[in-house]
Amino acid sequence: MAEPLRIALAGLGTVGVGVIRLVETNRDMIAARAGRPIEIVAVTARERGRDRGVDLSSYAWVDDMQAMAGRADVDVVVELVGGSDGPALTLARSALDAGKGLVTANKAMVAHHGLELAEIAAMRNAPFAFEAAVAGGIPVLKGLREGTAANALDRIYGILNGTCNYVLSEMEQTGADFEEMLRAAQEKGYAEADPAFDIEGVDAAHKLAILAAIGFGTRIDFDAVRTEGITQVRASDIAQADALGYVIRLVGIASLAGEGEERRLLQRVRPCLVPFRHPLAAVTGPTNAVVAEGDFSGRLLFQGAGAGDKPTASAVVADLIDIARGQSGAPFSVPTTSLVPCEPADPGDRIGRDYIRFTVADRPGVLAEITAAMRDAGVSIESLIQRGRNAEGGDVQVAMVTHEGPERCVTKALELLDGSPSLTAPPLVMPILKD
Ligand SMILES: NC(=O)c1ccc[n+]([C@@H]2O[C@H](COP(=O)([O-])OP(=O)(O)OC[C@H]3O[C@@H](n4cnc5c(N)ncnc54)[C@H](OP(=O)(O)O)[C@@H]3O)[C@@H](O)[C@H]2O)c1
Predict the structure, then answer these.
(1) Distance CA 350, CA 266 (A)
(2) Fold (CATH) for 140-306
(3) 179 Cα to the center of ligand 1, angstroms
(4) Distance between CA atoms of 170 and 52, rounded to whole angstroms?
(5) How confident is the model over 249-287, as pLDDT tens digits?
(6) Centroid of ligand 1 to alpha carbon of 106 (angstroms)
(7) Measured from the CB, is residue 424 less than 6 Å from ligand 1?
(8) 363 vs 41, which has greater pLDDT?
(9) 379: CA distance to ligand 1 center in Å?
(10) Percentage of the chain lying above the pLDDT 70 cut
């Protein structure tokens, strides 16, 4: 059999240990499929003495992670440390600079520095792959790069954060509020001790920016992703959505419109109302799902585990197998010089229906004030639900669904109501996902 592909593994946490277990468990099968063995030669983490539940004695321990890039006995550095900048980025740059391959699961780093890394990789003719960075075990980047390569895509969207999906679908099942279900997610190990990146939508935004670049052939633009998390979603919103025929999911949506100079890219992560009949409505728990709509393929749904040691390791090792086979193409599907810069779209131009929830003082005339603002801004109301006093106090909730119209009209209506003493909390707007 041919020479082994020699790996240095930086990071021995959830994913790093998963990679060791997978490489050891399926060693012979991987070698047969890759055409040569994949061999871990060196490992590193912060704490050498920690018991990680795997035998590390056959690997060289490297004290200084950065030294991995210079090792003559290493072909590919696998970065599983995390963080958009700092030691992970330094290692990624120096590994590629030294002509080593780089495999990473680090979506934050790829979203912020992926183009720079892809440029170094191209210059050094070094493979660079990050399948595990988006939707864990789901081979969606491969699916877009290879499976839909012949299609024009105009919309890619999906459930990109398992923590948020677990919290929302459990709120739906139990009727409990956000804080309680977030605690449950933390107890089950789905959410970090500091879950801010997840619940505020940043983690999903990292993944969306990567998906958009690969799917549309546009330059990755994380700063243009408009991001809202799920912290404002209440159990009552879920109940109202249910009564109207929807579930609530945190959805990342990237859509491309216009031609040539007029081409605009809208990238957004927001809680959305998803119709019961839509495939994303059936995606519950920590699962991820990505929908891509190709002009010839039609709608494709990629679904599976978005995180966890085993699924994420599966994606990392799939990248290593590609490299061992000599089959790693351009990380963003085309050379970075061919990626097209694309101006962000004005979200006000979006034509769609929205769910709007107001929390208002329980007194006469409030409903008339809201509906007048809607009328003056040109928003047409399709349905309206007013709920009685809640248990905590005298406020009531008014929820409405608008007819299809430009988003700027809804924004205008909320501006008209801004500062009104009738509103006792900021309104929440959630778009209704188009079928
Ligand atoms: N967990 C998932 O399900 C998942 C899914 C998809 C993608 N990812 C991505 O995969 C990457 C790793 O995630 P993870 O969950 O495995 O993280 P983790 O469990 O926190 O592990 C991080 C590892 O990096 C090591 N490390 C941190 N700073 C270091 C430094 N300066 N020098 C050397 N080692 C250092 C840690 O060492 P010690 O163990 O000694 O502290 C630890 O072994 C992240 O980019 C994450 O976003 C994770």
Answers:
(1) 9
(2) Dihydrodipicolinate Reductase; domain 2 (3.30.360)
(3) 26
(4) 31
(5) 999 999 998 888 899 999 999 999 999 999 999 999 999
(6) 9
(7) no
(8) 41
(9) 47
(10) 98
Pocket flag, ligand 1, residue 62 (CB < 6 Å) = no
Pocket test for ligand 1, best of 46, 79, 84, 197 (most atoms within 8 A of CB): 46
Structural domain 5-133, CATH architecture: 3-Layer(aba) Sandwich (3.40)
Supply the pTM of this predicted model.
Answer: 0.96
Instruction: Give the start-end residues of each E strand in 81-141.
Output: 101-104, 128-129
Structure tokens at 129: 């792959």
How does pLDDT run across 109-161, given as a tens digit for each residue? 999 999 999 999 999 999 999 999 999 999 999 999 999 999 999 899 999 99
Rounded Cα distance, 287 and 160, in Å: 8
- What tokens were used for 193? 């001790």
Domain residue limits, the chain: 5-133, 140-306, 348-431
Q: Is the CB of 45 under 6 A from ligand 1?
A: yes
Kindly list the catalytic residues.
207
Which residue has tokens 């839909």?
148
316 lines ligand 1 (CB under 6 A): no
CATH architecture observed for domain 348-431: 2-Layer Sandwich (3.30)
